Amino acid sequence: MKLQIYSNRLSQPCRAIIIFCKLHGIEFEEINVSVAKGQQFTPEYKVINPMGKLPAIVHGSYKLFESHAILIYLACSFPGVADHWYPPDIQKRAKIHSVLDWHHSNLRQGEVGYVQNRTLKPILGGKLDPEAAVNEKLLSKSLAKIENLWLKRDGKFLLGNFRPLIAYLSLVCEIMQLQLIPESYRNRILIPYKKVPQWVEDTRNTTNPYFDESHFFILELKGVLTVDSLVGINKETSLV
Amino acid sequence: MKLQIYSNRLSQPCRAIIIFCKLHGIEFEEINVSVAKGQQFTPEYKVINPMGKLPAIVHGSYKLFESHAILIYLACSFPGVADHWYPPDIQKRAKIHSVLDWHHSNLRQGEVGYVQNRTLKPILGGKLDPEAAVNEKLLSKSLAKIENLWLKRDGKFLLGNFRPLIAYLSLVCEIMQLQLIPESYRNRILIPYKKVPQWVEDTRNTTNPYFDESHFFILELKGVLTVDSLVGINKETSLV
């Protein structure tokens, strides 16, 4: 009953799951779904995830989508995952749920909208959205909350905890998506923050070599993103 | 150590929590935070929830925000909550997490944007957002997913389960927010669906009298929504 992960390394929630599995020795088959080819909308994939989004997992006869739900499921289902990733204590666990819930309508919504507007939409033939400024504001506000609220203590990680939680992978992989936008935009977004980049680097170091390996795609694409590069890289890696 | 709930009955996630507590005999003090007066942005409230949003709870020295995290915390912390609300089985629990995660970026994002554009923004002096059509599309797509995916079986509720889950309260209270928009808009949104309104009604019947009691505010406001009515009703109920 080997775990199957339907994934694309361009997707930040997919990378969070891949890193988590590799880090904990969870065996899995990675099935690449090409977003450039729209494979997430095919009838075959919709049997796996009727929402037509990535990631999704199949574990025996059990199917699950939504990356936060998947991370929690993996942390609870596989042996060898240290408690600090998803503590059994109800109050600590609730704090992780709270961060993950916040993520959806804040860091993620702002970042996805901003990156799509600044990079992916023009490449894929879409128009620049007038909402780009709204997304940038939400993204910056979210980064400020991470810097000034969750990283305010001297601990390396959120919630005053020195050991990583599943929420770090979701949030840090989201921030790494900014590597896809032109450097001048990225600098403008990130320059006000000192603790956020350090926390990204700490999380990277804690989860390497899997962190770098999972981000290979987007770091290769940095600055050379085109439709051809998206389709080409998917082919070259032979993940399909 | 009586539970304190910082709430406003205009807020759909607040109503979900209030209904859950009343249904399970969880004693609480309800502290109204007037959104019309912007009380969620005051320094006093930001000590409770630094995000400046509703709801939030204080349980002894423990503070928590984000309604889904709160519902899970309550289901796990208080005795007398039947297992079906948040089953201990890892796979069933993961399905609930999946629905709640999906909710953030789909039903909630579409509904909040649409209702704000159609009702609250004009009243509060804001301009109609050109994104209203995008929000309507996301809202309709989300309702279609509930109708055709989660309610497709003959079970009264999502996931083929006849007994309610915490996710029902979040989703149904969100749909109830459509009571705030003019009837013609509401009808246009809801008319394609048969199972969704029945499911809302079933959830209402299962959780009454608390469901109706919690929705009293928005049903009173229906069709007469003005800034004065918002401030007036907050005053009259003396919840502040």
CATH architecture of the largest domain in chain A: Up-down Bundle
The global form of chain A is globular
What kind of oligomer do you see? homodimer
Helix content of chain A: 55-70%
Structural class of the helices, strands and pairings of chain A? Answer: alpha+beta
Give the radius of gyration of chain A: 17 Å
| Count of discrete alpha- or pi-helical segments spanning 4 or more residues of chain A | 11
Mean pLDDT of chain A: 88
CATH topology value of the largest domain in chain A: Glutathione S-transferase Yfyf (Class Pi), Chain A, domain 2
Characterize the biggest β-sheet of chain A: 4 strands, mixed
Main interface by residue count: A-B, 31 and 32 residues
Query: Which ranges of chain A are low-confidence, i.e. pLDDT below 50, for 5 or more consecutive residues?
Result: 231-240
- What top-tier CATH class of the largest domain in chain A fits best? Mainly Alpha
